[in-house]
Amino acid sequence: MKKRLFTPGPTPIPEEVSLALAQPIIHHRNPEFIEIFSRVNENLKYLFQTKQDVYTLTSSGTGAMEAAVANLLSSGDKAIFVNGGKFGERWGEICRAYGVEAIEIKIEWGRAVTPEEIETELKRNPDVKAVFLTHSETSTGVFTDVKEIAKIVSENSNAVTVVDGITSVGAHELYMDEWGLDVVITGSQKGLMIPPGLSFIALSERAWEMVERSNLPKYYFSLKKAKKALQNGDTPWTPGIALIVALDVALKMIREEGLENIWIRHEKLSLAVREGCKALGLRLFGHPPSHAVTAVYFPDGIDRKEFQKVLKYKYGITVAGGQEHLKDKIFRISHLGYYDELDIVGVISALEMALKDVGYEGFNPGDGVRAVQRVFAEFEGVVEKRNEDDEFPNCCH
Amino acid sequence: MKKRLFTPGPTPIPEEVSLALAQPIIHHRNPEFIEIFSRVNENLKYLFQTKQDVYTLTSSGTGAMEAAVANLLSSGDKAIFVNGGKFGERWGEICRAYGVEAIEIKIEWGRAVTPEEIETELKRNPDVKAVFLTHSETSTGVFTDVKEIAKIVSENSNAVTVVDGITSVGAHELYMDEWGLDVVITGSQKGLMIPPGLSFIALSERAWEMVERSNLPKYYFSLKKAKKALQNGDTPWTPGIALIVALDVALKMIREEGLENIWIRHEKLSLAVREGCKALGLRLFGHPPSHAVTAVYFPDGIDRKEFQKVLKYKYGITVAGGQEHLKDKIFRISHLGYYDELDIVGVISALEMALKDVGYEGFNPGDGVRAVQRVFAEFEGVVEKRNEDDEFPNCCH
């Protein structure tokens, strides 16, 4: 059976990227690798829309989150985080593991923190050093307006804005420098279309100043060591060479498609998934929706386990379940990375058939797919229109 | 030109392992992956010769070193490390980054610490909590008798013995449980024959008791989190899935060849490299020699840069240079992992030709290869002969 992954990490890997993984290994100090790594670094700047260097860490995304905390802050520092999902909550857990006073904004899982809530907490804690945000909360499928919040943070405090872009980079509009995001991180098995094992982090000049003052312990994730090594086009420790060689291919694909086109594609595919689900009578969970992953309530009255089994073993489709207290309430369909229109037709069609198989009667066969096709026929991208003269980091001519 | 890597990480990757890397990605919570990961874990126990679980971290080997320090120790604890090379020195750097009082035994790079030196330092510091060792010091090609030292440590202190086996696991005899090694770590791009990006760590019961008491900050590298996740056959963070799928294939090859045979092969190939070099009039650096990597002085009177260039660009051979103050003094030939007799014939032959090309006259063409062949003809493995009834962790029938 053909297997199709619709999970928010790992995400499907293009065939040419897979084949790059299988190439003979090269040494990381060889000129051949140094050239690849340099091109990767330039393309990552484009992806992050920043002039700052983007550092490649050999770890999962959580490693880059820890790198942000351990390198920016000092013991006893205060930081704000938003517990509106499993990954927002993680910022708080990491801060506390390092003795940082983590001020929690706890919101119902399924909605986004508002700029006003951030402003209120900043006014209550004027000495906060960092605000940790989650651009696309993978556990709930909720999008947070980090552009607006970054403005609020800089108007109301001296804190840096740190953005978990693990499932937003390469899916959602993100202009790190222009929006004044001080730190952005992401992971490899997401919009970057390669297997898990690498994470990425970029820091503004203000954030680098904090790194100079930070006294929290770190070694493997030391960004000062990473910065020093990158001056020689290098990493402090042996990097995930094969993954970086594959990343080079994936980033070339991203350059060819163009970042704005990729954002529009994600917007369109996510809208199609939502419309398709609604046409099947399914209720969506979470608002506003991320373009990377759609969370959907299981319909009442069906056998949820049976539904997931049919989806996986009869139709070859792997979606993600809910996490923590959402475990038996929602499932999540990812459309992050290497997906196109027919992939979405496929997953909605499989949903239709699997729902019928388990006796759900809320729609007529074809309703979902018809709604999906309508989106594709009518969709007009609404990504911020930019003047062509706007300066784009665009270093790989 | 065919390219041949003779570097102590990355090491060459068998074709079947490379092809496993290129397989379609699977989700880490899918039964298919859980089965692979469970088999990998059993085979890692065999590799480490331990009944303890071996934890797979998504990081380079340095990450596992940091995991050992951050999970075992508490602030202000004392630990002994041996600075006899770049990697031994690293233990001290990590300890200090975490506020551990690191007691240095500084020895000349190129020799091994003796059990007596460890004993002396233990008597001077009876409150030491850990002794950090480097089984095969990659920077100098020196082997350390960790079996003997572990005995000394347990006879003279309550400290745990922590072994960096990054370039020894899969090359040198190592019986973690039987030798009383409390912690053993290794990396993926070494004896395990897969690309960099994974590291491995196993802990004795005594070491786990220390983990319970440790107060150093950690999150990504938290071994308690790793232990909890492994109870469900899982990892706390998304693991390097593609690398683990490849590791499964590599470990099957290791099981098929048999660990004792692999150790004997490394002993034979390393002896052949040393004899080949000596027959060319080259002086070996470091003693006693590691079976993973051979360090050789550049001969006097040749243009070292030209020699390395010829080797790399005319003969396709990448060897490693020296590190730190040994940079212009030695080069290092690795024979760790996926190498056989003809690979050694090839590298010694390339050395002969490249040395002639740069005007070195200390031998007659063929001298090196002849010495290599003689070793192969006469070699008898001296790996400790074990009774067949000895209990081997051997869980994958």
TrEMBL record, chains A, B:
UniProt keyword Transferase, yes or no: yes
Modification N6-(pyridoxal phosphate)lysine occurs at: 190
Transferase found in the keyword field: yes
GO molecular function: alanine-glyoxylate transaminase activity; L-serine-pyruvate transaminase activity
Superkingdom, natural source: Bacteria
Cofactors demanded by this protein: pyridoxal 5'-phosphate
Alphabetical UniProt keywords: Aminotransferase, Pyridoxal phosphate, Transferase
Residue stretches making up the Aminotransferase class V domain: 25-325
Residues bound to substrate: 332
One annotated GO biological process: glycine biosynthetic process, by transamination of glyoxylate
PROSITE patterns: AA_TRANSFER_CLASS_5 (PS00595)
Database matches in SUPFAM superfamilies: PLP-dependent transferases (SSF53383)
Family per similarity comment: Belongs to the class-V pyridoxal-phosphate-dependent aminotransferase family.
Protein name: Aspartate aminotransferase
Native species: Candidatus Thermokryptus mobilis
